[in-house]
Structures are given as C-alpha cells and as structure tokens.
Design a protein that fits this description.
Helix content is 34%, strand content 24%. It has ten helices and 16 strands. Helix 6 packs across helix 9 and helix 8 runs antiparallel to helix 9. The longest helix is centred in the first third of the chain and has 18 residues. It is globular.
Length: 317
C-alpha cells in the first residue's frame, strides 16, 4: 500500500506484487487529520494498473461526513472499472480505539460499499469486529513493536476472523525485514504459532551464518543474504536517505565488538564501520564522477568531496 508518487518513483514496472493505492489525503500531522479529500483520479489508478484503492474513513472525526463521501465516490468509480475499494477505519488523535468503536466504523464502511475493510487489532472483543462486518477484515499493523509481539498480534487477529494483515513498520523497521515478512506469511497462510514463526524468523536471518542446512560450503542462499544485509545496514546501521542526504544512525548490539558494511551512493563506494567505542568511520572511493555526498550521523554532517580519491571521517556519539 502506497501513494502514486512512490509507486512511480520507487516500484519497478516489472514488480509482480499486488498494489493498493492510497487514494485519499490532504492534511499533514500538523493539521486535523480527518480533513481528507480524494487525492487521485480513477483514470490514474487504471494507468497504474492497481489492484485496489484505499480511502480513510474517520468515523466520529470532525470531517466524518466528508471522509464518508470520499469512500462512496471511490466505490462508485471503482465499480465502473472493476477496481476494489479498501475502507480504512482511521483513528484520530482523540478517538478511542476499542471494539465498540471499530465495530461501528467497519460496519459503516462495509454498508457503504467497501469490498474490504482495514482496521486495528484490539485485545478484547476483536472477534466481534470481524463477526459484525459483512466483508473481509484486514488487520492494520500499527506502531512498531517487538517481532514476537507483532507475530502474536497477527496470529490472534487471524484466529479471531481477520482475512489477512497489512503491516508496514513492523516489517520494514524490523532488524531483518525479509525474514519478518516470511514469518508473518507463515502465521497468516499456514496458521503457524507465533513462537514457531519467530524461530522461523531467526532461522531465516541466520541461515548461512549458522549453516542450518549443512550446505553453505556449496554456496550462499541469496535471498537470505539480502535479508541479512538489510538487517545490518538498515536495522543496526540505521541507513536512510532523506532529502538527498545519506543518514547513518548506527548502534552496536551488546554482544558484538564491531561490524561494517559497504554501499554505493552517488558514485562513491562507502565502507562504514561501527566499533565498541562508539566510533563510526567512513572510508570511500570514487566509482565515477565522485559527486559530493553529505553524510549525517548523530546530528553531525560530514562532507565527502568529489575530488578526493580517499577520505576518512570519525564521528563520536
């Protein structure tokens, strides 16, 4: 699930996964969140070949009627062209998130035509939410929690009638996103117990490191390596690109002495090493024109100039 700008700029056209397009929007977190409008035309949804359109409905919000109208308009447009509409039961800053409220919000969305409803999980009474909704209910992942807790939440939601889960932060903010999404898949599609899924998550992340299959000498498992690389670089290393600048927010697990990784950014290969004394070192070399790079770590910027063939920078936490 994403907006059309990210779909066009970040997702390759050859990607075979299903796409749910966020079709409503408007205010930032600094304004009243329920003041949303339809933010995409149905023709653009067709051009993007999306599978479904998602629209938030703020039942009880200041602009409740407006968001309900957004839903009905998208349902009408989707029905004309055969595109599913997903109603998202948005919870504003001051709204109570309990089974009673979610039953009402899900039922309203379904009765107004949403073919699927996405809502939050609650520990008490979630089975009444799914039972009272005449269309499939998908559980929202919500804020980032520990991997085992996220797997337990997904298992409980599926056990209590949810048709699936839609997790964002609990996947891409996990230490091993590729392993985590596979573990969630085991829970949703194979009814695997959370504890078993968590062991699967750990095993997938360390498949070649611990040589579980006794075949590492014959070659590494590439998909597991990709998940491990992401867990080190984006998880422990905290690597992000914001506003064209490379950000590193690294930390070192208690039992580790150090770790390092390489990445290419703007025609430079950077080797980043994190050690136990809290020092992050940047060492790089040119691969092309050697564009200037701004690297930020712990609030401090280091400038990597294009005319330098080699550089080193040490930043203390």
């Amino acid at each position: 699930m994403l907006r059309r700008g990210m779909l066009r700029s970040a997702m390759p056209s050859s990607s075979g996964g299903g796409v749910v397009l966020r079709a409503s929007g408007g205010p930032s977190i600094l304004k009243e969140l329920s003041n949303e409008q339809i933010a995409v035309d149905i023709e653009d949804c067709l051009r993007l070949n999306v599978d479904a359109m998602a629209v938030q409905v703020f039942v009880g919000g200041e602009y409740e009627s407006q968001t309900v109208h957004n839903l009905t308009r998208l349902v009408d447009a989707g029905n004309r062209y055969g595109i599913v509409t997903l109603g998202v039961t948005a919870v504003g800053k001051a709204m109570t998130r309990d089974a009673r409220y979610l039953r009402l919000a899900c039922r309203i969305s379904a009765e107004l035509g949403a073919q699927v409803v996405k809502t939050y999980y609650v520990g008490e009474g979630f089975e009444t939410v799914t039972a009272s909704c005449p269309v499939p209910v998908v559980m929202a992942g919500g804020k980032k929690i520990a991997e085992l807790d996220a797997l337990k939440m997904a298992y409980n939601a599926i056990s209590q009638g949810a048709a699936g889960v839609d997790m964002g932060r609990n996947i891409f903010q996990s230490e091993a996103p590729a392993a985590m999404i596979q573990a969630v898949g085991k829970v949703v599609h194979e009814s695997m117990k959370p504890e078993q899924a968590y062991e699967f998550y750990l095993r997938t992340a360390r498949l070649d490191l611990d040589d579980y299959n006794n075949d590492t000498e014959e070659g590494c498992h590439i998909t597991s390596m990709a998940g491990t690389w992401m867990s080190v670089v984006k998880g422990f290393g905290g690597m992000r690109v914001r506003n064209g600048q490379l950000h590193i927010n690294a930390f070192l697990p208690d039992k580790w002495k150090s770790y390092s990784f390489r990445l290419e950014f703007r025609d430079r290969v950077l080797k980043i090493k994190v050690t136990a004394d809290g020092v992050v070192s940047f060492v790089g070399r040119e691969t092309g024109y050697g564009n200037v790079i701004m690297v930020k770590h712990s609030g401090h910027f280091s400038t990597v100039y294009g005319h330098l063939s080699r550089f080193a920078r040490h930043l203390h936490r």
